[in-house]
Design the sequence.
């Protein structure tokens, strides 16, 4: 028997008793706040035009069974705590899992289906379900710095895990151009091949030494490099960035 207190507007129910219906038997009905035509209620029917009023369920709750919740795929995020509110006959027959109805679990993955871990010991605990099987009990918490908020499933889940590479371009356009000036000068006037610094012998010490030379000259008050006529800070920054690149790629030994 369904719990009338948990039924929400938009849920779909199966009617078990034909005498509750008007005209013909409707296999499933949708829960609404109010029926457009209340005349049928006064005539003794509780279901009309494939709909049933939410407040009227308490009088005949045992005559209905829940077949689909109003939960949408976009309402659910990874990390949410959900309740398995209903299962289809096909799901129950396939998995012999009617005992899952009413259990809570955590959403571990969203793909074509929603993966829910119920944490049951000794039995299969990961289930692939649809949003219509579930109700969200508690939203996953998104913590940014000291600010805690609730996931917006239509926005936050799309951004989750994606690096905002555009922040580099919008934040450091002039600095990136300065590095490009150093690299262009090295290729055009020093005869270096593009990016051959990635293969220089003893790269760690060579790049550390070059960065140190430009830094010391800058600290002594010398702003521009004698050869390139570019600021020493440009060269220092390039050598630091080169070290970082080689460190990330595992070539800085």
Sequence:
């Amino acid at each position: 028997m369904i719990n009338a207190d948990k039924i929400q507007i938009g849920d779909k129910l199966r009617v078990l008793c034909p005498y509750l219906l008007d005209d013909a038997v409707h296999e499933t009905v949708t829960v609404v706040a109010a029926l457009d035509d209340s005349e049928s209620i006064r005539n003794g029917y509780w279901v009309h035009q494939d709909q049933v009023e939410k407040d009227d369920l308490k009088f005949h709750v045992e005559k209905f069974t829940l077949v689909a919740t109003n939960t949408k795929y976009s309402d659910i995020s990874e990390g949410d705590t959900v309740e398995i509110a209903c299962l289809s006959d096909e799901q129950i027959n396939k998995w012999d899992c009617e005992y899952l109805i009413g259990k809570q679990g955590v959403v571990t993955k969203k793909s074509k289906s929603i993966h829910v871990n119920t944490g049951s010991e000794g039995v299969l605990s990961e289930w692939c379900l649809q949003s219509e099987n579930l109700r969200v009990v508690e939203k996953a918490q998104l913590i940014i710095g000291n600010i805690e908020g609730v996931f917006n499933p239509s926005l936050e889940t799309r951004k989750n895990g994606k690096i905002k590479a555009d922040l580099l371009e919008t934040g450091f356009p002039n600095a990136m151009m300065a590095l490009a000036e150093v690299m262009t000068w090295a290729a055009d006037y020093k005869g270096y091949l593009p990016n051959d610094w990635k293969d220089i012998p003893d790269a760690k010490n060579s790049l550390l030494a070059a960065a140190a030379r430009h830094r010391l000259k800058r600290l002594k008050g010398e702003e521009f490099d004698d050869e390139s006529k570019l600021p020493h800070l440009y060269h220092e920054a390039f050598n630091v960035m080169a070290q970082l690149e080689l460190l990330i790629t595992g070539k800085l030994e």
